[in-house]
Design goal:
The protein is α+β, with helices and mostly antiparallel strands and 357 residues long. The chain contains eight helices and 20 strands.
């Protein structure tokens, strides 16, 4: 493959997209560094796919500016942009062989047939399917068909690779395998890639950066660790990792940490401000440890649901903080429904999301 060393940056500057009076994307700005994989993450209808389609040139921008590799592409057609897109549906031509599918874009661009086939075979080798080049798409598994779709996009040697929920048609085990293959390929080729999904685990697993969207706007951009450990607000905390949102109180703060009271339990949490008083706190399911209820436990709860999942137990706990979702990886002590338990809160996995400096 060519051009693997030079990949472009991408920037949105106050971009808005409307359909009639309905706003689909509302005044968003973000930037992507070359050779990184950035995921647009959010619930259905938040604007992430519309954003991807504007990068591709498949949707016109109503306001703002899009640049790729420093070049303003806002008014350019899809054919004039150096991007390729992998769609949710593989959209393979059933009457063509695998290699013909991959070479299709090159033949449309009037590349010599022999050269187009050579480059298509090269792209298939990258995704591990060179030995299946002459098969029909119908003879391939879902995971193999998805890799053909990726090869078809790669053969055009795009400055930016776009992927619109590419794993949505695969089963859970195959999703993990193909997800890892896409990430490995992106790193190997030094691609700039924009990946759309509503799957939080998928985004955390493959991304250099995550752009979280909600209600047509960007609510947070950061590394997977930043997004997970320091959510910007209650929506991000709840959407990424199913956090329990509870009331608490900051008793003291010094600009780095805050001593918080959550029910009857005190815990020190990262905090950039100095304000004290009532706050909202996100508690990850793994940030709550269960133990046999005792008189010295700061928090007591009752198990209302206990679910065994092989590698972990999932509990619903009724407590003074409300119903809490708890994940426990210790299987040597399982608490049955109706059991009274003590709750121990861990600082790692908890974050203040409702107070500001």
């Amino acid at each position: 493959m060519r051009k693997t060393q030079q990949r472009g940056s991408l920037a949105f500057e106050r971009v808005t997209k409307r359909y009639g009076k309905s706003v689909a994307v509302d005044d968003i700005s973000f930037s992507i560094e070359p050779k990184t994989l950035v995921t647009l993450l959010g619930p259905s209808g938040c604007g992430k796919t519309t954003t991807l389609r504007m990068i591709a040139g498949l949707e016109r921008v109503d306001e703002g500016r899009i640049s790729i590799g420093g070049r303003d592409v806002t008014e350019l057609s899809a054919a004039e942009r150096d991007v390729s897109m992998v769609f949710q549906s593989y959209a393979l031509f059933p009457h063509m062989s695998v290699v013909e599918n991959v070479a299709y874009g090159l033949t449309v661009a009037r590349q010599p047939k022999k050269l187009a086939r050579e480059r298509a075979l090269e792209a298939l080798a990258l995704v591990g399917l060179a030995d299946l080049a002459d098969r029909s798409p119908s003879e391939l598994s879902g995971g193999q068909q998805q890799r053909v779709a990726v090869a078809r996009a790669l053969v055009l040697e795009p400055e930016v690779l776009l992927l619109d929920e590419p794993l949505s048609n695969l089963d859970a085990k195959m999703r993990t395998r193909v997800r890892d293959e896409i990430r490995d390929l992106q790193l190997k080729l030094g691609l700039t890639a924009v990946y759309v999904t509503h799957d939080q685990e998928e985004a955390l697993a493959i991304s250099d950066q995550i752009v979280v969207m909600n209600r047509k706007k960007i609510v947070q951009q950061g590394s997977p660790r930043e997004i997970f450990e320091a959510p910007a607000d209650e929506f991000v905390a709840d959407f990424i990792g199913n956090a329990n949102l509870v009331d608490g109180e900051i008793r003291s703060a010094n600009g780095k940490t805050a001593n918080c009271l959550i029910g009857g339990a005190a815990v020190d949490l990262p905090y950039a401000g100095t304000r004290t008083g009532p706050v909202r706190i996100a508690l990850r399911p793994e940030a709550i440890a269960l133990q046999v209820a005792s008189g010295d436990a700061a928090l007591i709860g009752e198990v209302s649901r206990a679910t065994y999942l092989g590698r972990e137990m999932q509990y619903a706990i009724q407590s003074e903080l409300g119903e809490l979702f708890v994940v426990c990886h210790r299987l040597d002590q399982i608490f049955p429904r109706g059991a009274r338990v003590g709750l121990q809160l861990k600082a790692h996995g908890a974050a203040i999301v409702g107070a500001h400096a």
